[in-house]
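Box 3.1. Reading complex inputs
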Amino acid sequence: MLLLLIFAYGCKRKDDPKPNVPTAPSLKLSFKNFVGNDTLSLNNEWYQNANGDSFSVTMYKYYISNIVLTKDDGSQFIDTNGYYLINSTDAASKVIDIKNITAGNYTKIQFLVGVDSLRNVSGAQTGALDPFFGMFWDWNSGYIMAKLEGNSPQSPNLSKQFVYHVGGFTGENNVLKTIQLTLPQKATVVSNSSSIIEIKSDVLEWFKTPTTISINSFPGAMNGGKPAKTISDNYADMFTITSVITSME
Amino acid sequence: MKGAICWGVSICFVLSIESCKTDPNLNPEDPYSFQIPNGWPKARYNFENNPVSQVGFELGKKLFFDKRLSRDNTISCGSCHQPFSAFAQIGHDISHGVEDRLGTRNSPPLFNLNWHPSFFWDGGVNHLEVQPINPIQNPLEMDENFTNIIAKLNLDTDYKSRFSTVYGNDSITTPRILKALAQFMGLLISHQSKYDKYKQGDASFTASEISGYTVFQNNCASCHKEPLFSDFSLRNNGLKPSAVNDSGRAHITLNPADLYKFKVPSLRNLKYTTPYMHDGRFSSLEQVLDHYATGIHSSATLDPLLMNGIQLSSQQRSDLLVFLQTLDDEAFIKDKRFQEK
């Protein structure tokens, strides 16, 4: 036991930060949720979708995972085991700090909207994938990749709600979407700097292209299958990069 | 110099781990290790990322029999999965949830779960560790959520101590609860029936049991595959849909080709697990065999193997019933490790 303590102490000292050592480079992804040109405001703000239905949003969440960043020399940084749940009511959740990012000039980003199939079949997961967060279907195993809930006078439900829970990771109705975006300018990631890539998601895209959704005839998607696939095909183009900011320390 | 000390000590450290290494999964003397019985196929779940231990199993057992896992603290997993019923609920076609709410399906027995590729009558759940989420959250069963469960368990110092022992600190989380439950459920292995002893050469069959075994092999074994006595496939076995009109597998896949398909149950421990079928409609094995003889309801998704039912002579039928008794595992239902107290 004593030997162990010595071991831990002796080795730990080596890792102590020393003065004048440059800080590691930092890259953050900042997700900004919009409805068209307006910043998403929950509950009391009313919006209009492509079908002309008015709606408000009460819940908006989505998983981001399998992030890959490509440098101008073609090499890639892979954010291994990074799973993030972006929750519109939780400011901290909307900023992803890419751990152990390596220096380079990044020109492209790729990520999955949702949770890859392997993590859907591997039992009780931790972190953002903890079933505690209510993003896991208990009767039909698998993650809800994205959730949008709100109210609309066009909803046929007594509650006037619409509820879109998008899940399903196998077969023809697999909803997993890989998003590939080119940065409008290079993200120069070097020591003593921090870069932020701002990514906009647009809720309006859930309701259009390729399928215009009428809340009256399509008030809910709760069981995977074709309805979920339709919505995921729609939201596959909801992400755009609005800015790349690098600041030196 | 410091580097040398680190190396020296770390070698000692590794050596000391090696010298006292007792991988519980490899120790046949440890009743809380996972052993694959002789002649059985590989398991689907081998406690990867969830190393099984006695303290983990005991924590899982306490959770399994704890009514605080239900909203009003009236129902535990063990309420509908009782040890003396091979972890089914004997005498109940369907079980009662909180406030006596009734579901639509018969609570299945729990044993040899590590070999199951899917769970529930419709095979909707794909991993033992996430199986308990369903009954815990189902409004007709335990109607509880993990926020409340964690709050309740945190008030119990015995739980804090047990989580700390198993996981290194006393943080009670959903994945930790689920993994402990998986340790308990995964070690519920029924492999000591007369059939098992016969296969190991430790028991002999009577003439009637041997005849019944042949009847079984010729008429039942393609779905109820040895040695687990299920191939765990999902099939429509010709039950006429009841008023509930349970769509079975189609509820999961939304595919009409899967209508009325249910997971093939094991034939082990039938003595303890009446009634039978996904909705518990048959209270005796005689009724089950009558169904296969004359009761097959034809439909588009009926399993092709049952187009003509299963026709047995009265002698074959009685021999088959005698053989099926050799699959009852009294040692399993009386195993001290598995009892609530």
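In summary: The longest strand of chain B covers residues 234-235.
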